[in-house]
């Protein structure tokens, strides 16, 4: 499966002011990259000048514990492994409205990579990574195969435009996957948006996204978004901030 990664950006979702540290008890969501294409998803909670939370590499989905501080628009985080031993650190500053930039370094300083983060406005109630429930496919010989969920990554941009990217899957009788994908933009109109990959092509991938609190429903699909029997249609639950794949095909 190809996991979704973004260019160097991270999103913050809370009641914090632009370019300031999270206040006590406020939740913060972040997404973006370390280096050129290591997609990460992060959650932080403010505790006065201190912050705690975790982050994960999108391709691995294994949470790594974080502790640190945020003072005068400077963010410092230390990551630790399962044993609690420090392994690496983040050091960054708010360089412009809603943007956090800095460097990630291993504890011994032998490896340093840049990171770049972007804050999500408190009024944004549609951006996120949405997934259908995971399912288990059973082969003819009784073997169970854990199949990936369908997913959509959605980001609200200026002017009510949405950035959309995701994958859908269909498992045949042998539990082999047929894959479909969506990658483009749509216009948010009230609580819904109509995604069309190529408006000039009547057979192009298209579907309607209906937004509710923490979920989306996909309807009116064209049936042309990928391999045989692949459908994006269904109900998805928001599982975290979006992370897009901007790597070359």
Question: How would the blueprint of this fold be written?
Answer:
Elements lengths: L26 E8 L3 E10 L2 E8 L6 E8 L2 E7 L5 E11 L2 E8 L5 E7 L9 E4 L3 E4 L5 E4 L3 E6 L4 E11 L5 E13 L2 E5 L9 E7 L2 E5 L14 E7 L9
Structure at a glance:
Helices cover 0% and strands 53% of the residues.
Verbal overview:
With 249 residues, this protein is mostly beta strands. It folds into 2 domains: 92 residues, Beta Barrel (Lipocalin), CATH 2.40.128.120; 113 residues, no CATH class. Helices cover 0% and strands 53% of the residues. The protein has no helices and 18 strands. Strands 1-2-3-4-5-6-7-8 form an 8-stranded antiparallel barrel. An 8-stranded antiparallel barrel has the order 9-12-13-14-15-16-17-18. A hairpin with a 3-residue loop joins β1 and β2. The protein is globular and about 50 Å long.
